[in-house]
């Protein structure tokens, strides 16, 4: 049985550029994980020994900040995230808060795992997201919530 690198079923079909779906289709065809072979056009934010943080090239609607935290080794199961990993993820979050002031106000850390989650890239990764925020109130602008799909 052929190993699935990605699952295009859940790919954002609204990507007008078509680049995201193209990246997934190429990864599947070439059997090369897009996170193990990060294309050079990703904006690197920070890196640690075990993790890399990039800006998401296809941020969710209404996300003022959308970062992807990726383990440098290919893992697919959340049970393979060890104690050292959690420490480095925490360090990356604190680094991101220094770079992106909106994250100091708040945001979310999300991860999908397993076959029923809606994951597209079969390399475990975290999404660090902050919504568009009203500078005066520090709250989400009404109608500008970020929807993180699961399933």
UniProtKB/TrEMBL annotation:
Annotated SUPFAM superfamilies: HIT-like (SSF54197)
Task: Report the domain of life of the source organism.
Answer: Bacteria
Protein name (database record): HIT domain-containing protein
